[in-house]
């Protein structure tokens, strides 16, 4: 479902001649997906040389010439353009990038790096933990049935100093999990503005029914109608509320999980 949401958000931005940068490409999962949606080339960065090596080796021969891998730290305002120019890219993507800091200042720095690389009318699409203000309520909801027996399973570990969010562990299945900082919705929005974004901000809805996942979810986790309603009221991905708009330069579409 996350992949379907990313595809829905990014494909309209992949116009002829568009220049794309991916932050925290990791093992190249989304790099390969984006390549399959367009004939454009991509600059993909990550802080880990090991991850970049895996991503590079995972590409087919035909795709390898369309990706430029770059080692970098997303909290340091650096140009990832081939010529090191500012505002080079038309589209930026960060799948599970903004969750790698537990400091509000770090989040602002990440947004500043993205803004530094985007053209004045460029767009950033990000995947972050679900946009919510009351994370204590989410902690309670995901610690009891039926959410405590579903995948992905969310575990809220400790509130981050300053009350800006929670340290969480996201369990994809019984064997695979990763840590993520889940910031409050207002913190994402304020950090984006401080980091240089002045365009519209759009939280993308989860779309569990729209994207055709309702029946699959009910079948996979053997949910009753009441249990599904609880699941729908506590989205893993996206926002179930109104979409937000900011006027000005640069646009941003945040989705998750969370978009």
From TrEMBL:
Superkingdom classification of source: Eukaryota
Keywords, in A-Z order: Methyltransferase, Transferase
Methyltransferase domain mapped to chain residues: 20-121
Molecular function terms from GO: methyltransferase activity
CDD domains from the UniProt entry: AdoMet_MTases
Pfam families: Methyltransf_25
One GO-annotated biological process of the protein: methylation
Protein name: Methyltransferase domain-containing protein
Organism (species): Metarhizium anisopliae BRIP 53293
